[in-house]
Amino acid sequence: VVNFRGNVQTRLKKLNEGEVHATLLALAGLKRLSMTDNVTSILSLDEMLPAIAQGAIGIACRSDDDKM
């Protein structure tokens, strides 16, 4: 295990150059970047359960604000 920093492109470059043997990246991020061709495996919920409220969004607004 090594300290592994950088954006997705940097991490994949380090992987492709053999600096590291593996990396774990979010599929959602790879989809946004149109880089899903780099996916070799998708972890199941049994292998890695997401954090509670992962992806939850909270919205607060004023009840007297007609522009909302």
TrEMBL record:
- Spell out the GO cellular component terms annotated for this protein, sorted alphabetically and separated by semicolons: cytoplasm
SUPFAM superfamilies per UniProt:
Periplasmic binding protein-like II
Q: Name one GO biological process term.
A: heme biosynthetic process
> Could you tell me the keywords of this UniProt record?
Porphyrin biosynthesis, Transferase
Q: What is this protein called?
A: hydroxymethylbilane synthase
> A Pfam family this protein belongs to?
Porphobil_deam
> Taking every annotated instance into account, which residue ranges of this chain make up the domain Porphobilinogen deaminase N-terminal?
1-68
Tell me one GO molecular function of this protein.
hydroxymethylbilane synthase activity
